[in-house]
Every structure is written in C-alpha cells, then in structure tokens.
Structure prediction request, 331 residues.
Amino acid sequence: MKKIITLGIIAILSVGSIAFADDALVMPAHVGRVYMTNTYAFANASYDKSGNLNTLSSGASLVSGSDAPSKAYNMGFALEYGITDWITAAVQWAPGWNVWSDIDGSLSPYSTSKININGVYDIFVGAKLQIVGEKAPVQNSMFRFAVAPGVKIPLPATNMSDQYTNITKGDPATGVNLDKHLFALGGRAYFDYIINQMFFANLYSEFIYYPTEGDYKNTKLKNYASTSKIAYGYDLTLEAEPHFETLINQGLKFGAGLPITYVTTPNFKVDGTEASDTGTTLLSLGPNASIFFLNTLLPVELKLGYSFPVYGKNFPATNSLTLQAKVYFKL
Prediction:
C-alpha cells in the first residue's frame, strides 16, 4: 500500500450523562447498587469546526479523509456503595466497551479492510460526598449539594501501527481510540433544588484534567507513524435537568427527566504547539423515563433514554438509545 490512509472524523459515543449524572443523592450507609448500560449509537452527520452540520455519505472514501456514517453497540458497568449516609464510593465504566461497531466507508482501491470503532473507554474511580441534604453534614430538605472527586484509570489503547498492518493484509481494523487512555484527575459537582415531592431540578458539572501527554500515533489510524506527543488539556461537562418522579403504588415508582448537556474540550497541543480549530463542542438533549420496582427481592430500576445532538463543533452528530438497569443491595 503506497497511499497513507487519512481517515476523517469517526463517531465516538456520548452517553455519560444518561449513565450517572442523576442527582446529588448518595447511597445510604451499607447500601449499594450495580449498574449496567446498553447503548446503541449512530451518526449520519457531523459538525465541522464552524458548527455546520454536514451529512455523511454512505460508502464514502475513507482514504481521501471523507467522513462516513457509523453505528456502534456499547456496554457499560458501575458499582456504588454507601460508606456512610453521606459518602458513597464508586467505580464507573460507562461508556465502557464498544462490543460491535461499523463504519459505512471504503478504503478501495487500496484495501478491502473494514474499519470499525471497537475498543474500550477508561474507568472513573471516586467518592461522592453529600455536603447538603437531609442526612448530610449541612442538613436541609430543600437543597442537596454533593461533590465527587476522582481519577480516571487508563485502559490499554489500541495500537494503530498494528491496525495499519491489518489494513495492508485486508483484515478488519480499528480506526480510532475511543478515549485518551491517560491518567486524569478531576471531579463532579451536583446541586438539586427540591421543588416538591414530585419535582426537582438538577445541575451537574464534571471537570477532568489530563496532566500528562500521550502518543499522538495512537489517536487515530492516520497518525500511526507519528512520533509526536499530544496534550489534551481537559474535558468539561455541564448539565441541567428538570426531573419528575411519583409513586404509582407502594411498590412501583415512575420517573422522567430532560437533561440538557454541554460538553467541550479545548484545542489540543502536539509537541507543545496548539493545533488550531481542534477543540470540540456538543450540546445535546436526552429525554428519559424510568420504572423503579421497590418490592422485588433486590430492588431494580430500569431507565430508557434517548440522546440527540442540537449543536456542535468538530463532533459527530451522534444519536444514542440507552437502556440502563440498576440493581440495589444491602450488606
């Protein structure tokens, strides 16, 4: 193969807000819950650096750098446990693993390989501390406030040199790493205004800082031969959600919400030099509804959410449908 592959933007799932930006409540002492998320995501358009929405063409030439439609199925998991009535420990891996994916593009005439976006995201480990609330150090029945300091634990990145070798053989190849795969630190903040027994408004924020550089060659397949280093800076997420919940009967609770989520990253740097117009922005809506079975052997909550983009820059216009299950237990 004589031509260097210059793959364009490839969709990356954006399902974190559906998974864990619920509210400022923590788990009661000695009570835990296990999450599982199943997400189907697809992108048939993408936002360019000016915020224009461009339709992606089926069968587009990935060799020329064109974008192509994509779809993926992702599974995620998490475990939370109440250390006290106002401190909860958490390990969260959602988005977790792209079990299956497909890019509707072509490498012809240089290769018969199919390109995918399989791979894993990194893991967040932290603790959620409720500062204000009914059982918090600052007791209040109208407001809840919590913070969740933590770190991101990197999982192994896909080696893009190996993926390029796959292309030369005509084998399937992964075109992008889904996460930074670098150690990071940061935290989350939650604020609830409790309007009445059925309504509350939630504000959520997450800031993740990457103190170290990564290998630029492992960001995308087109960079497989690079010897440069990349510095990402940070990830910032802001969200506002009106939330409704009510008891249908003594053993069944219904809930619904409409989160508005804003995600942004700054321009990254390559070997210390800022790469212009590489920052990303995405504004999305994520209506969801949930059913909580309270009187089962182990209480179970099921939530179905759909996230769709409203505006963005340098970001795929990803739509995602997520089914989340939470199983509660006491030790």
In short: Residues 13-19 have pLDDT under 50 and may be disordered. Residues 32 and 81 are 4 Å apart (CA to CA). Residues 160-169 form the longest helix (10 residues). The chain has two helices and 25 strands.
